[in-house]
Amino acid sequence: MIALIVILVIVVLLVLWGVGAYNTFIKLRTRVENAWAQIEVQLQRRHDLIPNLVSTVKGYAEHEKSTFDAVVKARQVAVDAKGIAEQAAAENMLSQTLRSLFAVAEAYPDLKANQNFLDLQRQLQDTEDKLSYSRQSYNDVVMKFNTALQVFPSNIIAGMFHFGQKDMYDAAPEADAAPQVQF
Fold first, then answer.
1. Side-chain half-sphere exposure of 171, counting CA atoms within 13 A
2. Res 84 pLDDT > 50
3. Greater model confidence, 182 or 125
4. How many domains does the chain have?
5. For residue 94, is it within any domain?
6. Contacts with 49 (C-beta within 8 Å, 6 or more apart), sequence order
7. Is residue 62 part of a domain?
8. Residue 155 sits in which domain range?
9. Average pLDDT of the chain, as a whole number
10. Is the Cβ–Cβ distance between 17 and 119 less than 8 Å?
C-alpha cells in the first residue's frame, strides 16, 4: 500500500513537472513572438519614414537618381522579406543604401539646414535606436528559449512536444550602427 502511494506521488510530481515545463516553453515561445513583433513595428516605422526622407532629399538633389532608386529598391526588398534571416539581410542592405542617401545630403548645405530633413533624420535615428533595442531584446528571449530547449530535463518535454530552436536576429556588424551624418 505504501509503495503504491509512493509511486502515485512520484507520478503526480512528474506530471506536474511536465505541465510546468510545457507551460514554460509556451510562455517563452510567446515572448519570442512578441519580441519579433516589436522588431516588426520598428521596421515598419523605418520603412514609412524612408519615402519621406527620399522625397525631401530628392527635391534638393534631383540628379542623384541612382541613389534614390537604390534606397527605394532596398526598402521594397526589406518590406517584402520573409523570415528572420532574410529580414536581417534585407535590412542590412537598406542600412547601407541609407548611408549613401545621407552621403548625398552632405553635398547640399541647404538640405542639411532644412527643418523637414532634420526632423526626418532625427526620427530615423530614434527608430534605429529603438530597432537596435528591439533586436537585442528579441535575441535575449530567443537565447532563453533555445537554452531551455537544450538543458536537461526540460529537453525531454521539448522533444516530446516538438518545440524547435528559434533563429537569432543576426545583423551585420556595420548594420547595427544607425546611419550617421556629420555636419
1. 22
2. yes
3. 125
4. 1
5. yes
6. 120, 123, 124, 127
7. yes
8. 23-175
9. 85
10. no
* Domain CATH for 127: 1.20.1440.20
Print the SS3 string covering 36-48: HHHHHHHHHHHHH
CA 160 – CA 154 distance, rounded (Å): 10
Tell me, yes or no, whether 167 lies in a domain.
Answer: yes
Asked if residue 180 belongs to a domain, the reply is no
Distance between CA 67 and CA 100 in Å, rounded? Answer: 7
In angstroms, rounded to a whole number, what is the distance separating the alpha carbons of residues 105 and 109?
8
Q: Is the pLDDT of residue 181 over 60?
A: no
pTM for the predicted model, two decimal places: 0.71
SS3 (DSSP) at 163: coil
Cβ 176 vs Cβ 134: under 8 Å = no
DSSP 8-class letter at 151: S
Mean pLDDT of 22-45: 93
Instruction: Report the 10 Å Cβ neighbour count for 22.
Output: 16
| pLDDT per position as a tens digit, 140-172 | 999 999 999 999 999 999 999 999 999 888 766
